[in-house]
TrEMBL record:
UniProt keyword annotations, A-Z: Aminopeptidase, Hydrolase, Protease
Cytosol aminopeptidase domain mapped to chain residues: 189-523
The reaction(s) this protein catalyses: Release of N-terminal proline from a peptide; Release of an N-terminal amino acid, Xaa-|-Yaa-, in which Xaa is preferably Leu, but may be other amino acids including Pro although not Arg or Lys, and Yaa may be Pro. Amino acid amides and methyl esters are also readily hydrolyzed, but rates on arylamides are exceedingly low
Spans through the membrane: none
Domain Peptidase M17 leucyl aminopeptidase N-terminal: from-to ranges: 49-157
Keyword Metal-binding: no
InterPro entries reported for this sequence: Leucine_aapep/pepB (IPR011356), Macro_dom-like (IPR043472), Peptidase_M17_C (IPR000819), Peptidase_M17_leu_NH2_pept (IPR023042), Peptidase_M17_N (IPR008283)
Protein name in the entry: Cytosol aminopeptidase domain-containing protein
Family: Belongs to the peptidase M17 family.
Domain of life per record: Eukaryota
Species assigned in the record: Phycomyces blakesleeanus
Amino acid sequence: MNALFGRSLTRSFVRQQTRTGSARNFTNTKQYDAIVLNAYTDAGNITLPATNAISATTRATILEQLTASKFSKQGDVRMLYNIGGVKQVAIVGLGKKSGEDQAKIQDAVRTAAATGVRALQGQGAKYIGVDVSVDAHGASEGASLAQFSFDKLKVEKARRKEIVVGPFSESSVEDITWESGQIYGASQNLARMLMTSPANLMTPKLFSDEVAYLLAGLENTDVLVHDEEWAARNNMNAFLSVSKGSQEPLRFLEIHYKGGKESDPTHALVGKGVTFDAGGISLKPSNNMALMKGDMGGAATVAGALYGIIKLGLPVNVVAVTPLCENMPSGDATKPGDVVKAMNGKSIEVLDTDAEGRLILADALYYVTSKYKPSSVIDLATLTGAMDVALGEVFAGVFTNSDDLWKKLDKAGQTVSDPFWRMPLNAGYLKEMQTSLVADLNNLGKGRSGGACSAAAFLKEFVNGLETPVESPGPRDTTEVVETTTNDSIAWAHIDIAGVMDSQSTHGYHIKGMSGRPTRALIEYIKSVSN
């Protein structure tokens, strides 16, 4: 029953995105029952940038109404009715013109489109035209992101009615610009859907089924789903240790997209996929534990980004892996003080079973970097509460060994207004993890004090070629150790998305609840390296 129920979520998602994406490009605005218009408010003057889409008489009426209503700043919304043959028109302020800063222009349009679509949908509009005269991609993104709602589990009368949204403009705008915005928006909505799904309907198996179903048949794409036996054969004992407390079987999802030439470099994405995190034996407080269904946010954003990368047909090779499991307490669960040996042969003393994300990522990072030797690897994880304390829900924190990779990520985040902030990656944060009397490392460090930084330092030890050699006072049994090869050229970044995991309120294109961030920034980054 749960499998069928879970699969229906994907089918519904695909159907909704297809309906939205197939909206016709109307040139006659009367075919819409509602329209979102942009308006600049600069030095007291109100201008409508859609100059070719509105008659002079209708334009004069709109400007007169806006002036009378004291329409004056960015984010202002005015609803007009039966204007120019259209039942409802939402005019949204873009503020002052931003000059040549295309990212600011696009974000203003993205926000305005989302605000307008949501206002009209609340008024019962079914066919909405969105002003694309300033930036078609941003308008399409905002319109798509504004429509997200996870209400498929509610009775039908309580669900939001589906709408069709299309570009409103008589100017010559390439369709791919509107369509690319829809793909970016749909990709983040996919990540939102995966993160928002209740944990009983998004187990490791169901997550794998959902993503495999969604990507099935897409060009140049292979999806591999590995089970516990496979993980054991590959000596992924850190990953296995986290899953031991749950009755739900683990999965290791591996996706290959071969959009580039065979000789082109491969870029790797790794996502933490704890589909529910109770903390294991180190049980979390019950307050807000329900939010821990979103602890697979790293895996969800990787899946969403892959969907967008593939749909855009980017000429690049990407391998993505997501270790999926639950972290639960039981008689079989890993105990504080237990020692496990990771895939690269390093032993780990588990001081805190709630510091589980770094354990499953340790094996995933070593697997993907040792087997595929990518030119870059980025892992994403809702990893530490310390990151939420440090940056809140504005920035995702980035730890990286590469200035060039940081510059590309920073630019990608700024381009799509999903920003990153660089954090320190320093060996000093690893020292506390090297003090175990019984293992090479422990998994805790100083806990909350510098916790995000120590977690990043821990993960670096499992990126093949970047790890610190272990000095052992005595002979070591190397029969289970997978030999490492030096790969100093690999560029690695760890992105802690704990702070941006969910939005506390609805504003613009942000919807209260699980955010699906930074899916669009990942797509933009891969787009930049594909060029």
